[in-house]
Amino acid sequence: MKRITHALIPAAACAALLLPLAPVATATTAHTGVHGVSAAASRDAAAVTRDTVIARAQTWLTADDGHQVPYSQSATWDGYRTDCSGYVSMALELAKPGPNTVGLATSTYTSKIAMGNLEKGDLVIDATGTSTTRHAVIFEKWTSSAHTAYWAYEQRGGHGTDHRTLTYGLGTDDYDAYRPNKY
C-alpha cells in the first residue's frame, strides 16, 4: 500500500497542476468512434510538453518506496515495461506498455535530429543490435556549452531508473538523437 500511496500522491499533485493545461478530448478521439481513432492512437498523438516528460521521468527515481524502479524486460510498473523503452514510453505518455527501442526510433514516434540540436525531453537511442544491447535515454541538458556530455534519465539493467551524465552519441557508437513527434 505504501508503494501506491507514494506513487499516487505526487502523480495526483502533478495532474492537478497540469489539468487546466490539458487539451479536452473529443468523442471521436477518446475511443474508437466515427473516424476510427482508437484511444491508444489518440493518446500517442496527444501533445505533451518537454517539462512534463522530464517531470514524469523523475517520478521513477523514487517511485518504489523512495527507491528507483527496478529494471526488467518482462515486469511492468503502472502498465509500462520497466526496461528503457517502457520508461521512455511512460515519460512520453505513450500507450501502455509502449513500443520497444526499435519502434521508438521509427517515424511513428520520432524524427532523427543532429546531436547538437538536442533539447530537454529529446531522446538518444541505439536501435541496432540485440534486445540486450539496444538502449534509449531521455536527454535533459548539456553539462556545458562544449557539448561533450549531457544529463539524461534512463532505465538501465543492473540498476533501474537513473539520472546521470552520459556521452552516448558523442563518439563512435550507434546512438543517434531523436525528437519525439509529440512536441
How would you characterize the overall build of this protein?
The protein has 183 residues and is an alpha+beta fold. The chain has one domain (2-180): endopeptidase fold (from Nostoc punctiforme), CATH 3.90.1720.10. Helix content is 27%, strand content 21%. It contains six helices and eight strands, in the order ααααββααββββββ. The protein has a six-stranded antiparallel beta sheet with strand order 3-8-4-5-6-7. Strands 1-2 form a two-stranded antiparallel sheet. β1 (76-77) and β2 form a beta hairpin. It is globular, with a radius of gyration of 16 Å. It starts with a helix and ends with a strand. The model is unreliable at 1-39 (pLDDT under 50).
Counting structural domains, the number is: 1
Could you give a short account of the major beta sheet? 6 strands, antiparallel
Query: Which strand order does the major sheet show?
Result: 3-8-4-5-6-7
CATH topology: endopeptidase fold (from Nostoc punctiforme)
CATH architecture: Alpha-Beta Complex
What is shown here, in short?
The protein is α+β, with helices and mostly antiparallel strands. Helix content is 27%, strand content 21%. The strands form two sheets. A six-stranded antiparallel β-sheet has the order 3-8-4-5-6-7.
Task: Summarize this structure as a short list of keywords or feature phrases.
single chain; 183 residues; alpha+beta; endopeptidase fold (from Nostoc punctiforme); 6-stranded antiparallel sheet; two-stranded antiparallel sheet; 6 helices; 27% helix; globular; disordered N terminus
